[in-house]
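I had to read the description of the data format several times before I understood it. In essence, backbone conformation is discretised, so a fold becomes a row of integers matching the chain in length. I therefore recommend that a typical entry be quoted early in the introduction. For illustration, here is how one protein appears when written out as sequence plus structure tokens.

***
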Amino acid sequence: MPRIKMIVSYDGTDFCGWQKQKDHAFASDKASIQETIEKCLSKIFTHPVNLSASGRTDAGVHALAQVAHFDTDRPMPVDLCWASRGHLPPSIVIKSAWVAPQEFHSTLSATHKTYRYWVWNSPRPSALLARYSWWIRQPLDLDHLNAQCRYLEKNQDFKSFQSVGSPVTHTVRQIFQANWKPAKGNLVQFEVTGSGFLKQMVRNIVGTQVNLFQREQPVDKIQEILAALDRRKAGPTAPAQGLFLKKVYYPTELDNQCRQI
């Protein structure tokens, strides 16, 4: 059965997150991105489609290039991306699709990911970027924040930045690169690339870094927080709307076996 790999972008504002939820008393009234795309693909291929992704994004989090896959034995439309447009809301777009080898798995085959976080750093909020950034009035010192980042760039235990959620076998992750830089106008951008991320880890890092700066703590304070292995020692969680899944990376040998459709 052919395996189809897709690149999906979405505005997560109006969804409960990537993963479809089970029915229970506290379930969100909002649809999940996963179930919305599954319904679309099920109509196109006239059979139930089960979709897997590189990872879950929380409610309100966006994606520039989420990677997902599914299996089907039905004929492929001439242009799957175009065929999906009539069945998806404008806030979800299938950008590209490939026939992938059976050993490809969007979750298990991923080697590392890059996330981006936007801060609107201005005395006044932005109406147009309110859904895509965290408004912070106090001017941020990017040199100070980048000095903090140097303590993040290693293979270490990030338990202090893990929110309660899905259980994991261990909390050690490797951060290859983390940095803050000006984006455009009053927009400030944090980007981080790592081997993997714990639940809300990026938002917890951003919230902690900003909190430490605002409280005029020394840059090496973040090292003390990391060593504590205690979420209570870190700062608040940054709002969801500023976070984007930017890119997911896979082994070159797998990418080279994918045939674009």
